[in-house]
């Protein structure tokens, strides 16, 4: 239940921040949090490029972590496996929603308010529940890529789809192993 309250907070707080604390209009708030999308082909291509960058980084990081002896992803495996076992369709739906809320909160809101590196640190801290050092290192590095991509492209759609493709790929990988 706490998890769902946190997700609701992450969705509503940015809106309250700009409407109540910053006293922005609805139009300005929405333009800030949901930048105008580009042409759908450009958004899709950007999403695919982002996924490729995330995947290539994942591979490189996996090799580096193995070489230096950090391999505690079994903690992540057990959590993901338990979630899938509790209902694959629910888990996929939750994934679709959670990835949007993460990009909305950490990139469209928090990154604009506190900056790229601090928002990435908070993003990493939010993934601490897995209890895996390798996961935290991966989340931090991939979070920096997501933050940079958002800053460069100002597209919540590219970040959302690239992040979603990456997470879906990771879950499929976990399920196969």
Please tally the β strands and state the result. Answer: 0
Structural class: mainly alpha
Give the fraction of residues assigned to helices: over 70%
Low-confidence runs of at least 5 consecutive residues? none
Largest sheet, strands/sense/barrel: none
Q: What is the mean predicted local confidence, pLDDT?
A: 91
Shape: globular
H/E series: HHHHHHHH
Give the termini distance in whole angstroms. Answer: 30 Å
Percent strand equals under 5%
Instruction: Tally the structural domains.
Output: 1
Report Rg: 17 Å
Number of helices: 8
Verbal overview:
- With about 180 residues, this protein is mostly helical.
- It has one domain (about 40-175).
- It is built from eight helices and no strands.
- α5 (about 90-115) crosses α8 (about 155-175).
- The longest helix has 28 residues, at about 40-65.
- The chain is globular and about 50 Å long.
List keywords for this structure.
177 residues, mainly alpha, 84% helix, globular
């Amino acid at each position: 239940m706490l998890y769902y309250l946190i997700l609701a907070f992450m969705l509503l707080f940015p809106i309250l921040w700009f409407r109540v604390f910053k006293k922005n209009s609805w139009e300005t708030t929405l333009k800030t949090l949901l930048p105008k999308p580009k042409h759908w082909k450009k958004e899709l291509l950007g999403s695919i490029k982002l996924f490729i960058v995330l995947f290539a980084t994942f591979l490189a990081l996996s090799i580096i972590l193995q070489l230096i002896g950090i391999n505690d992803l079994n903690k992540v495996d057990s959590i993901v496996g338990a979630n899938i076992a509790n209902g694959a369709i629910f888990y996929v739906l939750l994934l679709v929603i959670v990835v949007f809320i993460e990009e909305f909160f950490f990139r469209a809101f928090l990154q604009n308010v506190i900056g790229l590196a601090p928002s990435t640190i908070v993003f990493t801290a939010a993934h601490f529940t897995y209890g895996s050092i390798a996961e935290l290192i991966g989340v931090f590095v991939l979070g920096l890529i997501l933050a940079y991509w958002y800053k460069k492209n100002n597209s919540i759609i590219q970040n959302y789809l690239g992040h979603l493709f990456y997470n879906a790929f990771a879950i499929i990988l976990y399920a196969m192993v």
